[in-house]
């Protein structure tokens, strides 16, 4: 049985970014589709980075192959709504640690249910990265990767931060990841649904006074929900969100990319979670709720068009 330092479950934009930064270690890529695995085997992972284009070669399997492998750390880089299934599948790799790297909520909670808090970590990622094809990703904006647990850090989480840093990644370990998940949620809730509904790159949100006003109101709502939930945000959420927009100015959000592919979005795991938490705590979130309905309507429209074509 082959043994790896890292197994990355999900080789899309975020999975490709992590494979790029961890390519100096023994890394296995795992995909859901056989054609995705074949594309990566044939062409390698082509990364368009600020330093220039690089091809990363790594072994890749897809779940249906029935392969046998074991890894020290499993990184879950699928969409939030697929996280629980991916975590369940990753258990067959016998990992000592599972790291969930995705937008929204739900993935870390699933990993904690399977392995316990001490062996489940989350990664909050603000790099702007776009999946161009099954074998090509583009790093469109330099950000950072923040890792941590909802409890004391695992030694392998510390090692992951070190391994990412060796490749020039801006990575850091924090004592409690929850405030950073909520801070990123504020940015995600403001950027992703707005850009998805409008069909614009992230930077447009700063060019229009109307979208800038909406962005500010969305962030205010998320901040109120987080405060009611007892979460002390580690930075000013509006300043943080504006900084993310500037760093990913030309990037198209993952939610917009999902809509363009007529696929399901993560709006339920991002905006939906914020709306539901607000209702439970008595905090109104009318702008977030309106965007939740708009994105779900857009999803339905694209599915109906796809089905009729």
Description of the molecule:
The chain is α/β, with parallel strands linked by helices. The protein has two domains: 2-176, NAD(P)-binding Rossmann-like Domain (Rossmann fold), CATH 3.40.50; 179-308, N-(1-d-carboxylethyl)-l-norvaline Dehydrogenase, domain 2. Helices cover 48% and strands 21% of the residues. It is built from twelve helices and twelve strands. It has helices at 13-21, 34-43, 83-90, 107-115, 155-166, 178-198, 204-207, 209-228, 237-247, 254-260, 267-281, 286-308; strands spanning 2-9, 27-31, 45-49, 52-56, 60-62, 69-76, 97-101, 120-125, 128-133, 136-141, 145-148, 171-173. The strands form two sheets. An eight-stranded mixed β-sheet has the order 5-2-1-6-7-8-11-12, with helices on both faces. A four-stranded mixed β-sheet has the order 4-3-10-9. Strand 3 (45-49) and strand 4 (52-56) form a beta hairpin. Helix 3 runs parallel beside helix 4 (107-115) and helix 6 (178-198) packs antiparallel against helix 8 (209-228). The longest helix is centred in the last third of the chain and has 23 residues, at 286-308. It is globular. The termini are far apart. The relative contact order is 0.12. The mean pLDDT is 93.
